[in-house]
Amino acid sequence: MDALSPEELRDIEQRLDRLEADLTGRLPGLNQEAPAPGEVQTREVGDEGDRAEWNNEKSGHGALLAHYRGQLHDIDAARERIRSGSFGICVDCEEPIPLARLQAYPVAERCAPCQERHERLYMSRRPEIDES
Ligand SMILES: [Zn+2]
């Protein structure tokens, strides 16, 4: 299999960092119930007013929060794969994921065809998806 070069991996890690910073910056209090596994960082937490607002608007923002939590989880999982050396390999077919796809979507754990198939299966029974 083709391993990514150290430069390519570093680029991916920077993309993951930016994704995470973007998510956590936009959603104060997001990490309260979803601490990143194995990662202790000091994060700015929004003031109580911000948090109450988020809690009060459950319908729309709750679904959004669940969506962003999922993304943060994906970012952590991607970092874990980088550490373990399995990053860039499709978890389903075990073929290398094209670099262009990884750069566009650094949390990808599947090649495009496998991801499509997975989403069709997974989305239909994903519990946090709003049923409305
Ligand atoms: Zn695949």
Can you tell me about this structure?
Helix 1 (6-26) runs antiparallel to helix 3 (58-84). The protein has 132 residues and is mainly α. The model is unreliable at 39-43 (pLDDT under 50). The chain has a single domain (6-31, 51-125), classed as DksA, coiled-coil domain (Four Helix Bundle (Hemerythrin (Met), subunit A)), CATH 1.20.120. The protein has five helices and no strands. Residues 90, 92-93, 95, 110-111, 114 line the site of zinc ion.
In short:
The chain has 132 residues and is mainly α.
Derived from helix and strand composition plus strand pairing, the structural class reads: mainly alpha
Strands, count: 0
Radius of gyration: 16 Å
- Beta-sheet strand percentage? under 5%
Give the % helix: 55-70%
State the domain count: 1
H/E topology pattern: HHHHH
Net shape? flat
- Major sheet, described briefly? none
End-to-end gap: 43 Å
Q: What is the CATH architecture term?
A: Up-down Bundle
Within CATH, the superfamily carries the name: DksA, coiled-coil domain
CATH overall fold name: Four Helix Bundle (Hemerythrin (Met), subunit A)
CATH class label: Mainly Alpha
Bound molecules: zinc ion
Number of helices: 5
Q: Average pLDDT value?
A: 79
